[in-house]
Amino acid sequence: MIALHPYSANAAPNQAHLRIMETTDLHVHVYPYDYYADKPVDTVGLSRTASIIRGIRAEATNAMLLDNGDFLQGNPMGDYIAYERGMKEGDAHPVITAMNTVGFDAGTIGNHEFNYGLDFLMKSTAGAEFPIVLANVATEAGADPRADKTLFKPYVILDRVLTDGAGNSHPIRVGVIGFTPPQVMNWDRKHLEGNVQARDIVETARAWVPQIVEEGADLVIALSHSGIGAADHADGMENASVPLAGIDGIDAVMTGHSHLVFPSPTYADYAGVDTGAGTIHGKPAVMGGFWGSHMGLIDLLLERDGAGWRVVSTSSEARPIAQRNEDRSVTALVEDDPAVLASAAQAHEETLAYVRRAVGKTSAPLYSYFALVADDPSVQIVSNAQQWYIAQMMKGTEYEGLPILSAAAPFKAGGRGGPEYYTDVPAGDVAIKNVADLYLYPNTVRAVKVTGAQLRGWLERSAGMFNRIAPGSQDAVLLNPDFPSYNFDVIDGVSYRIDLSQPSRFTSSGELAAPEAQRIVDLRHDGAPVTDEMEFIIATNNYRASGGGSFPGTGDTVIFEGPDTNRDVIVRYIVEQGTINPSADDNWRFAPMPGTTVLFETGPAARGYVEDMQALDLEDAGDTPEGFARFRIAL
């Protein structure tokens, strides 16, 4: 027996209950499978989310399903289709086929839809059996948003039929408009520059929403592939969902992009946001996690108002597909939808073959257990490959002859990912799944030109990874938990030490906090001190080069934008080398602090590699309640 929602059970003859479901940030996760680890998991997959969707449809008299973007890229299946199989006219993309199987009413475009280029995007979405809308990206920009020639339809009005509390049917017109962060113009400049323009989300909404209402929409739903951020509008906001919700005429906001959940305590202190009511500026809102982890749900009790409808009451929730238990195990809450699995079965098998293919060998293991406390083999290989590639690209240019450095960070280094979230590739064959494990994101290679002063600032920003340590103190916690490992750039091609007795020059989010602080000491290139006026090329990725993470020396210093992803470059490097030697070159260390010890946490499997860590004075200090291994380092 199905338990009806109170809105459905209590709707009066002139009232109707409408349930609006959201998926967001699917990132090609159709199957409940971790292709990097090459094993099934219970925490991801549209095949699981689809079971919740099916249940909601069974509970509800009236229901709609919307997708909030970032569905086309984000795991090896997406890369396989884009780089290996390709998309010809008329081809079906497996994630679109799966979405058609689930049955969406409409969707929008996230920023990652642009990662593979506009041609791939348009061919992939051509097979969607539901309208895709996007209001703030135009192929031709007019004097104002309503004069734009948009890449997709800016909005759609869906004509649907609602059944009211007495069982009578009535028409309703639901307007759906979509938005993506305007930062796509920086993040995917190589694909978009000269081809499209992106407008501010709020400015665009102010122009289009009145038109949707004028055309007779009873409800307007904003598909905001944009996070929940500041309440005050600023031009070009990346996370604009709060001011967007404040626009007259918008009745509900589907959010995403941030890979978080709303309603949840995460947003308890945000201006304009009521996590208890699940509203933003009084409008119902939801964010359904990522990779299919949750299904967002907004319930509306509507009442006939003349010939139209008005919202009487609302509720919001995000329903998970799995739960984490106190012992860190995971319990699946739903089964797979067999039809969704079947829709992508061939692409799944082809992806498995793709990720298991050997591309070369490594003479020693590649692991990231000590990547935050010592020069590291998993980061070293990425750095070597980037340096190798940019050296080729600089030949014959005006920059040939400048020293080429390389910046790389550990992506899998525990933290919120847990005690198993580390790279660990044994010696022997290296497959594509291993390369994806070394480099999680499909970033593209870029090069920037910096001064010695900017180089030092870049490293100072990176050194915010560490708490300040008082000389002579015992067992202070080394790592700053608010600092993400992907912002801990190690720069190869120079040598340096990090003085932990100094304060961090920057906050975790990149604001200047202590301008005179100097954690980076003894910075040298080819054995000579680096001066402020020296010039260097740094090989990095599009995210960092375009200003991601707020590092000195980035944002406006790009001199080369590669057509290749960092992963592709790593694969090519391994193929050319045949057998790679991943030994770290120990180009950075902590400055000595006699009589001082610190504690840091890593994965338990790190104990198998302690003997490799000759640069560190390590002592095993047991395990944490969360399952991490704790080590003591004598500085």
UniProtKB/TrEMBL annotation:
It is found in: Cell envelope. PROSITE patterns: 5_NUCLEOTIDASE_2 (PS00786). It is an enzyme of class 3 (hydrolase). The keyword Metal-binding applies. It catalyses: a ribonucleoside 3'-phosphate + H2O = a ribonucleoside + phosphate; a nucleoside 2',3'-cyclic phosphate + H2O = a nucleoside 3'-phosphate + H(+). One of its GO terms (cellular component) is outer membrane-bounded periplasmic space. Pfam families: 5_nucleotid_C, Metallophos. Signal peptide: none annotated. GO terms for biological process: nucleotide catabolic process. Keywords: Hydrolase, Metal-binding, Multifunctional enzyme, Nucleotide-binding, Signal. It comes from the Bacteria. Transmembrane segments: none annotated. Residues 18-259 form the Calcineurin-like phosphoesterase domain. Its cofactor is a divalent metal cation. Its EC number is 3.1.3.6, 3.1.4.16. Residues 423-552 form the 5'-Nucleotidase C-terminal domain. One of its GO terms (molecular function) is 2',3'-cyclic-nucleotide 2'-phosphodiesterase activity. Belongs to the 5'-nucleotidase family. This is 2',3'-cyclic-nucleotide 2'-phosphodiesterase / 3'-nucleotidase. It comes from Salipiger abyssi.
